[in-house]
Amino acid sequence: MTLSVRQGEFVSVVGPTGCGKSTSLSMISGLAPASDGQVLVQGRPVTGIPDGLGYMFQQDAVLPWRTVLDNVAAGPRYRGASRTEARDRARDWVAKVGLAGFERYYPHQLSGGMRKRVALAQTLINEPSILLMDEPFSALDVQTREHMQDLLLDLWSGTSAAVVFVTHDLTEAIALADTVVVMTAAPATTKNVIPVRLERPRRVEEIRLEESFLEVYREVWDSLREEVEITRARGAGRVA
Prior knowledge:
This protein is α/β, with parallel strands linked by helices. It contains eight helices and eight strands; from the N terminus they run E-H-E-E-E-H-H-H-E-H-E-H-E-E-H-H. The strands form two sheets. A six-stranded mixed sheet has the order 4-5-6-1-7-8, sandwiched between helices. Strands 2-3 form a two-stranded antiparallel ribbon. The longest helix has 29 residues, at 211-239. Keywords: ATP-binding, Nucleotide-binding, Transport. InterPro entries: AAA+_ATPase, ABC_transporter-like_ATP-bd, ABC_transporter-like_CS, ABC_transporter_ATP-bind, P-loop_NTPase. This is ABC transporter ATP-binding protein.
């Protein structure tokens, strides 16, 4: 597969189940080596975890024994900031994600959506230049998911971070992205790269009703449908 992402670009990656979407993030992050070819970040081969990289997983990585404030402050602390400095920065980010007043709460006291906000603050407080997101909102209900999508767009818009966002949700993929990459059935190749020429700033619940959005949705689904059918046929063959 071939995939290029520019600085400041938001790229959504969609494809059938098991095609390798998450594996592509693992290669960009240096957590898994490429089986062939090269992975370059800012022009340099990836031999470990690149500097300036943030990764938000499907399962949040909040630490259950730490409060909201100390979870968000963990990144700066690991990077050498004093406890006071890290906590001051964390308070700002806790407020940015709408959790002011919950600084002393522990993860088990939070809803799923609130935990996702903590995870988002954890990731963005480090000001990543590259943000990898692996279906981060898939476990949330529809209303909470749309709120998190809008929050992500608001916070990302003030940065120049490149984002690679893996999702199965075509509405989410299109509403967030500048570009949607459609992958083939496994072993994955890049089938189509579709630009999303929708104005920013965006509100997910509003933009998905626009005709221009529906046009992009049809184009993405037309490209993806065949790959989904191939994957289903392979699964049916194994069962048979």
